[in-house]
């Protein structure tokens, strides 16, 4: 959270395996029948749901900058091929009909699962954000307005709240771009503090895809691009979701 001088690196591991058990990740098969193209992934996982609340829609807490840029990108969904990515209470709502590979299954009360960046229900108090994805260019823009419950330095967003949202934007971009499912590596360098209630714009790009890995970058800046808040990079492992059986 300081202007200069520190870097954070996080490597996500796998949890829940038995002690001593061999833990092999399934190989990614680009020739599979489902999810083999960005277009099919967008069609499957960016559907609007009438019975599930979409947190990526404007509400009364959004400021003028957030609203105006949102409407700019909404117009781009009609003319330039951008897609507004819906955001639900849990990622389980995004992958209905599919499940995580067996190696990543977890035993838990499914009723209380909630996406970390949607854990604060009250509008304007935590994460207010929306992601727009450009399929042909494999890039995303996330509009982020941090609320008071995300405070770090008084009056400014906690650095960890930004890191979490960058990782979340990485994950949506990686999966829609080519089934990048798990964060292998995440690095962030903070440049400036984000004032609470202001707009920060996360610009995410897929840099390359090779050896079952996807490499992404992010520059977080002010709307006028005069202030850079952070620069980040991440590596994601490509893995396929499994279709749920009709008996489940």
TrEMBL record:
An MF annotation (GO) of this entry: long-chain fatty acyl-CoA hydrolase activity
Pfam families, A to Z: 4HBT (PF03061)
GO biological process: one example: long-chain fatty-acyl-CoA metabolic process
Gene3D superfamilies: Hotdog Thioesterase
CC annotations in GO: mitochondrial matrix
Xref: SUPFAM superfamilies: Thioesterase/thiol ester dehydrase-isomerase
Residue ranges constituting the Thioesterase domain according to the UniProt record: 155-225
Name under which the protein is recorded: Thioesterase superfamily member 5
Gene that produces this protein: THEM5
